[in-house]
Design a protein that fits this description.
ATP binding; disordered C terminus; ATP hydrolysis activity; transport; globular; AAA+_ATPase; 8-stranded mixed sheet; alpha/beta
Length: about 350
């Protein structure tokens, strides 16, 4: 099996605040394969954005700090690189597209100038060659009359067109990994579908991996190969998109899916309660205060290790009901099944979460 392009192990990112230490990302592990789309999903405040920004150390330091773990990209641990080494990768082999394209575009420069700058920063080409490539990129992302619009300013573009420009800038250096943070949230449904279709087309064209950060499970179902469900800085469940949608195994995943129209009993519903304090999270499973299946074992100790679902090491869940001797039917609403084969997945043991 080929090594993943990106491998994150036990990542911990904290913020030092007047209220205390915020554990925004607390022991997160997952992989992104080459040419694969992996979606980080969860409510706002789950730690998805901080996870994405931690990869290339975009978090503001101070108060932010990567407190532990590994971020291995194409065989190199990014946590060991100095700023100059990281800058060579950032924007070149790893690119970001953010939720608010207006914030990513400088209002006093034309979009063409900004694309040319991005190209020349990482590639040894003339300004004329960079301009030609920039126009081609604008055309590929669907900007009409790309040659003429190349010299327009950001305020002359609509929200959807700004997002396309931001995508063109991110693709300027043919990145191996695109980290897209809620790239369609501010767009209407029609434009959102166009952007998602465009991402899929460009992914195939550039042989690119995508880490997509979103709270929209409809988007996840449409584009993801694999899904990582986060809650309060922890991974609750991860697996192939089909497995997670057809066999949701953590109570939080099931609750998220029940919020979709047509999925919940009696129609879509909301999840009761709210995210726990980031400075004083509860003992045991982070989700237990909102979980209808919580038992005493859920309320003590650390976050449970991840266990395979039905013996599948590629579909794992952090829930005490899946430990050896547990009864996952409590969560899944099925007849009780034996779980003697349940075991923590290698690399995600209780010791890793301490």
């Amino acid at each position: 099996m080929t090594e993943p392009l990106l491998s994150i192990r036990d990542l911990r990112t904290v913020f030092h605040t007047d209220e205390g230490l915020v554990r925004a990302v607390d022991g997160v592990s997952f992989d992104v394969g080459r040419g694969e789309t992996v979606c980080l999903v969860g409510e706002s405040g789950s730690g998805k954005t901080v996870t994405g920004e931690s990869i290339t150390r975009l978090i503001r330091t101070p108060p932010g700090e990567i407190a532990g773990g590994e971020i291995v990209f194409d065989g190199r641990d990014l946590t060991t690189l100095d700023e100059d080494e990281l800058r060579e990768l950032r924007g070149d082999r790893i690119a970001h597209v953010f939720q608010n394209p207006q914030g990513a575009l400088n209002p006093v420069y034309t979009v063409g100038w900004q694309i040319v700058e991005a190209i020349q920063l990482h590639q040894d080409v003339t300004r004329a060659e960079a301009r030609e490539r920039g126009i081609d990129l604008l055309d590929r992302v669907g900007i009409p009359e790309a040659t003429r619009r190349f010299d327009d300013y950001p305020h002359e573009f609509s929200g959807g067109m700004k997002q396309r420009v931001a995508l063109a800038m991110a693709l300027a250096t043919n990145p191996d990994l695109l980290i897209a943070d809620e790239p369609t949230t501010a767009l209407d449904v029609t434009i959102q579908n166009q952007i998602l279709g465009l991402l899929s087309e460009l992914q195939a064209e550039f042989d690119m991996s995508i880490l997509l950060i979103t709270h929209d499970l409809g988007v996840v179902a449409e584009v993801a190969d694999r899904v990582v469900v986060m809650y309060a800085g922890k991974v609750m469940e991860r697996g192939g998109v089909f497995d997670v949608f057809e066999r949701p195994s953590h109570p939080y995943t099931r609750a998220l899916l029940d919020c979709l129209p047509g999925r919940g009993t009696g129609g879509a519903r909301s999840i009761g309660g709210k995210l726990p304090s980031a400075t004083d999270p509860p003992d045991g499973c982070r989700f237990h205060p909102r979980c209808e299946h919580a038992v005493d074992a859920c309320r003590a100790g650390e976050q449970p290790p991840v266990y395979p679902v039905d013996g599948d090491d590629d579909h794992v869940v952090s829930c005490v009901h899946y430990e050896p001797g547990g009864d996952p039917s409590v969560v899944r609403g099925e007849e009780a099944v034996p779980t003697d084969g349940g075991r923590p997945v290698e690399g995600d043991t209780e010791e890793d979460d301490r």
